[in-house]
Amino acid sequence: MNESTNGPAKIRLENLVKRFPGQAKPAVDSLSMEIPEGEIVILVGPSGCGKTTTMKMINRLIEPTSGRIFLEDEDVTKVDADQLRRRIGYVIQQIGLFPHMTIAQNIATVPRMLGWKRDRIAARVDELLETVGMDPATYRGRYPKELSGGQRQRIGVARAMSADPDVMLMDEPFGAIDPITRDRLQNEFLRLQAEMKKTIIFVTHDIDEAIKMGDRIAILREGSHIAQFDTPEQILVHPADDFVADFIGRGASLKRLGLSRVHDIELSEWPTVREDASRSEALRVIEGSDKSSALVLDSANRPRRWVAAEHLRRAGEEPLGSIGLPTDAVVQPHATLSDALNEMLTARYSCAIVVGNDGAYLGIVDIDTINDAMRSMRSVERGRMRDRLIGEDDHATEVGE
Amino acid sequence: MTFLEYLETRQEHLLELTIEHIVIVVEAIVIATVIGLVLGILTYQTRRPREIVLAITGTFLTIPSLALFGLFIVWIGLGTAPVLIALVMYALLPIVRNTIVGLREVDPSVVESAQGMGMNRVQRLLRIELPLAWPVVIAGMRVSTLVVLGIAAIGAYINGPGLGNDIFTGLARIGTSTAVYVVLGGMLGILILAVLFDLLYVLIFRLTTSRGLR
Questions:
Q1: What residues pair up with A43 in beta bridges, in sequence order?
Q2: How far, in Å, CA of A324 to CA of A328, rounded?
């Protein structure tokens, strides 16, 4: 619970309590936590656990019953709430774009309240539209109803970032979007965050989203009690208790695959042959390996075809580049192991081909590769855990003496 | 004399009455809109006051106009002032009601995001809630205008202005040669005004409602 954090705390919650009138139990019961600067901290938990209430107390949309909130060591529990909110970006699931205002006016809301000059606002609006991948000339004059759900969500994020707040609060921001668009928006947002390094509090009820988006995850139980506050890796490998284990659910190993990337693991080899090689040479390569096929590469080392022995024995004079089967299941090094596994399951030879950014062949991932990777990750974690226990023992003896 | 000939000989007189009619209706609607907006804004969030306001303005609308005008002679006297007061009373309900409905129909997530961005209560009301409720308010004003156009005619009973004067004059002289024409002239003027006001509201709606809401 008192997991030490690396960076300085950007937000500090101290014994925060929220008691709604007419309810026996407090919605948030004496919560203390530190949010490190520049990280995405996820508040996740079953519905009714108080995660949204906790988040809304940070920008004081809900006033805490007691306790204190510090933003960069400044006690903001009693400052002017409207002024405070202009310093904190806010994105909600329903997005809440203003339907009677254009996209540009929506994004300009906070800068206008802060009294920015017109041309500064206009420049900022265009910059943000570029940032979220929407052409300013096309979109700045449109109205929210003229956008798709995914585009509205992008504008919601752009609007929250308009005055460049250090801190952003996001309440299930991708919750109401179809799974494919959601995945794309999540990736876009992670890419943005890699540059922005904002401090983000992100509420979700979806543990998979938490694992994907979070630098750190706080799993909350009823009353906003922290069950575990840790990195996604630690939570998956060492759930603190049964509640956390239950919440993660079965398939924690599968979820771990979503955390490791292809470039983190050692790739396997597959027999390869150049497309200008002769058939007999290709046959020799296959027979010299334990595989039933070879991967044909073009002059730039890009995978072209799968060629099996039976393709080669069949009569014909066509070059290697036009016989056999097209390559499928191609992944890039930044793909997650879970992506690679997914490709692999539908691939012809049960493996995924890994190519670099230039499309050149790097190696393959198959089920054994993934298995080895998982095993070594577990032993590394076990080793780390053992070291920590020994360290604590040493400490205990020292104190004892 | 045909009806058209009658209209031609009385054009100036009819135009004068029509203008009087327009003026009192517009005055009543403007005053009722101001009062209606204020009452709506003050009460839309709280249940009891909202019900009380709607009950009172609803009762106004059920009072027979002739009876109300009669009582006003006793309390206020004759002329334009009592008519104007009565018309405002009749115009209130549709406007208050639509203001309340319009404000309550604003998507709560829109208001929450406005608040989350640091808009204070007044900013939220003026920049977000009222503009979003406006099309509904205009619809209320349109209904009130039609109601008041007709009732204004009865105002002539207590020496009020407008086309009602010809209607009452004509009715008093039924049996004489042009009496029916006089009554029909006043009615025709009101009908034409109803159509014109309706067109005017289409125009106002276009001019004052954001393209994002249409």
A1: A203, A218
A2: 12
> Can you give the pLDDT at residue A3?
44
A96 → closest Cβ in B110, B123, B213: B110
- Helix (H) / strand (E) containing A117: none
**CA–CA–CA angle A315, A317, A322 (5° rounding):** 100
Report the C-alpha dihedral over residues A214, A216, A217, A223, rounded to 10 degrees. Answer: -130
Task: Give the structural domain span for B33.
Answer: 3-213
pLDDT band of residue A396 (cuts 50, 70, 90) is very low
Which strands, in side-by-side order, build the sheet including A351-355?
Answer: A330-331, A351-355, A361-366
A-chain residue closest to B211, CA distance: A100
Interface with chain A: mutation pick from B113, B119, B121, highest number of A CBs within 10 Å: B113
Q: Which of B67, B80, B78, B64 is nearest to B23 (CA)?
A: B80
Q: How far apart are CA B79 and CA A72, in angstroms?
A: 69
Number of structural domains found in chain B: 1
Would strands A330-331 and A351-355 be described as parallel, antiparallel, or unpaired? parallel
- Structural contact between residues A320 and A275, judged by C-beta atoms closer than 8 angstroms: yes
- For the question of whether the overall pTM of this predicted structure is more than 0.90, the answer is no
Give CA–CA dist A164/A168, Å, rounded.
Answer: 10
- Separation CA A81–CA A64 (nearest Å): 12
Judged by CB atoms closer than 8 Å, whether chains meet at B116 and A85 is answered as yes
One-letter amino acid for residue B81 of the chain: A
Q: What is the pLDDT of residues B54-93, one digit of tens each?
A: 999 999 999 999 999 999 989 998 989 999 999 999 999 9
Show contacts of A322-325: CB within 8 Å, 24+ apart: A324/A293, A324/A296
Give the CATH number for residue B171: 1.10.3720.10
CA atoms within 13 A on the CB side of A274: 5
Nearest residue in A to B113, CA atom = A96
Instruction: Say whether A97 and B113 touch across the interface (CB within 8 A).
Output: yes
Interval A145-202: pLDDT, tens = 999 999 999 999 999 999 999 999 999 999 888 888 888 889 889 989 988 899 999 9
Residue A365, classed as helix, strand or coil, is strand
pLDDT greater at residue A157 or residue A329: A157
